[in-house]
Amino acid sequence: MSPRVVVLLALVVLATATTPFGDRDPPEETIEPKQGGAEYRLPTNVLPDTYEITITPYLYAEGTNREWTFDGEVAINLRANVDGVSSIVLHASSLEIETSSLRRGSVPGELLSGQPTYNNDTAKLTYTTTTPLIRDTVYTLTIRYKGEIHGDMRGLYRSTYRESGLEKRLASTQFQTTFARRFMPCFDEPKFKAVVTLRVFRPSNMIAWSNMAVNNTQTVDQRELDTFNPTPKVSTYLLALIVSEFSSRSTPASQQNHFGVIARREMYDLSEYAFTVGQDILAKLSDHLAYPYYEFMPKMDMAAIPDFSAGAMENLGLLTYREANLLFSETKTLSMTKQRIAAVIAHEQAHMWFGDLVTCDWWSYTWLNEGFARYYQYHGTAMSETNWALEHQFVVEQLQGVFQLDSSNNTHPMTDPSVNTPSEVSGIFDNISYNKGATFIRMIEKHLGTDRLRNALRAYLRENAFGTATPPDLLRSIQAQADTTHQIDSVFNTWTTQPGYPVVTVRINEDRTQASLSQKRFHSYSSETTGNELWAIPITFASKTQHSLTDTTTRNIMSARELNITLTAAVSEWVIFNVQQVGYYRVNYDEESWNIIIRALKETAHDGIHVLNRAQIVDDLLNLARAGYVPYGTTFQMLEYLKNEQNYIPWLSAFNGLNHFRRRIPKEHETLFGEYMIDLLTNIYTHLGFLPKGSDAWIDIYNRANVLSWACKYGHEDCLTNARDQFARMRNDSNYEIPVDIRPTVYCVGLREGGQGAFDFLWARYLAENVATEQTIILSALGCTNTDATVNALIDRILSDAVRDQDKSSAFSNTYSHNEENIPRVWNYVTQNHARMQEALGGYGSVASYISGLVNRFRTTEELELLKTFVNTQGSNFGGSRSSLERAVANLEYDLYWDSKYMDYIVKGIGGAGIRTISAFLVLFAAIFTSFFR
Prior knowledge:
With 934 residues, the chain is α+β, with helices and mostly antiparallel strands.
């Protein structure tokens, strides 16, 4: 055999080689055991009617040692609802109780027996009475106490900012979920709604804002005493107070319905967009729900807080936000952030009805609050901003966004009866309550009909106003609008009480006259799992000649394991199920049906396949292959169609799925993956261009941002040339402004290539910047720096006071997510400085969380051993948070198992053992063939 033939055969073997699937089951994912315990819940035999609270905050020393503390007094009118009650149990935390007294109306005599007892674990404060309380009789429990204005953005907490070179201080509140008890002894569960009257002794140079307007102000001992109007019945977590030197952009005092935006004085000009869009959204939601906001509340204020742990908070009548989520600058705020500002406003305003007016009875039903708020975050914003394709964005960001979590063993049902402890309460505020809740509501809307759902919600709000609700209350309102064909009880209950979601497998016969459907629960880690779960699935479908992808009408309800559907499609015609992905499930097809769909995607105008179904196909195939339901070859055939896709929505699905490849691809194949990405991106990059255009559609602006980020990261020459030019112009001309929507990419390229000089330059800009949205852009981009010295310096500064606590976590994660080569640098920093990190972050729990995010990027067995060694040698320092590290070990073990099972197919798909090898073979064959005929 000649050497040439040996080479040819070797290349053929290399080009066609595959690795068989592993012959063992994947390891089980770990689930953190729930702490459990109904003892954390309050008894319901005593109910509060009203609170009268008096607060004196000390933001400065004021000649005393009371700096960052407060005095408080609360008088609670309460009553027993059963006979024989001889103890009153409520919550308190981090408070020093000074005196307590219980009276029955004006009847003289103390009714408390001795000092209260306190349970540190449950935060329960228990008073014993001298005689049993008389049922349905009002008693007044008065408690004087002291507290701290905390530094952790919970309870009544401190914040600072600089104005005209001086440090300014303020106090603000964040009570959700269990932190009102840091502000006052109270019945700190959502079901205990009561009327609240607040009185605040404030410094005369400051203003106090709360849920209601000020009724009167008096001067008392060089302070101002503001007495606020009583609230409607409200849960304690929805109370709010701000004491600051802020100013307000407000409607005229003569206008009956007050609306205002509160912020630092220097930010007044940046409050205009929130002021305008906020009023518009509030009015449209009022009309949509047929329950005007100003019917149950006299005012609406929205406040931008410099330090804020959440994105925003729905305190009744006084919404609080991070500055970056409320204040808009034409020159310093990304278009995506402008959308986020409007969307967060819509989310919090929707809570005025879903959460504040009608409150979930307990946190097990958090989705009744957060699901509706997330739903109207998109649909409410779309009432005001009509050109943003928000319903399309909803599908990718919310429905597809929660699929991964809800296909793991760590998921839970929307209605979760196991929630009791504070940590469990905190955990329920996840994407199941938010994303899945909103997606479920959208599915019910499409199944029931928009008008019917709206009428049901209007009835639900009226029937439960000023009270609390459970899912059966919502179901009753929906039932009143449904008919028997909707099977609404089954649809409602199977989706709200079961974790996870199904994959519907569609098999179409040869002559395309019948589709056989089967359902089973989808698991992201294996296609072989079995279970008994069944869902009542509203089935929608369409082909080119049967029904339409613009019509989301339910065609069948699939309540059994299998369902047969009659088709009228032509033999070579695509049939697509889950029209516009209105249903919360994945769809898998037989091989021929997938091939027909993929061919159609590559046709002119994608053969009429709706943009949402294109996004669905992208997301489903990437994840079906990831779990072993379909071969990766099918997925990579589909991805080729993206070369002619111009719409942001399918590209967003693709980027989300390809991120998994980016995190897992072995280091030796990173260059190959980059070449594959550039090949996919070339046409869309050319179509969009580097610089923004005045004719850009809103979602084209978003698409460009993603395309530039990926293109420059993987070495697209035109992208890099433009980014370098923009960064150089900015450094050389202090008056030059880079177009705001391309700044993240330009800053990132500048930092990757500019070393210490670029890092110092951009860090100085960060420190000098006063607008939160631009600070956010810079801080994110700083993670692109990629030298030992600058990465270490950046983490040092993240842990310092130079970066606000609210921003530390995302800033840290960017140090490794923006550059894979930084992973070992960050790991070395963490392992050498974990003790110092826990001091800066307030405990080892935060350090464990940081490490878990970092090691999610580990890709080798050597890195696994490094992690195990660290846990074994340092895990004792982490206390209860060691379990987080052990979960990280288990997750990495599974990721490496997954890599061993599938990575060869991915490398082949991107060209490592397939297309590129075949291309090399063809080049070599051509050379050999030519040599034979010289």
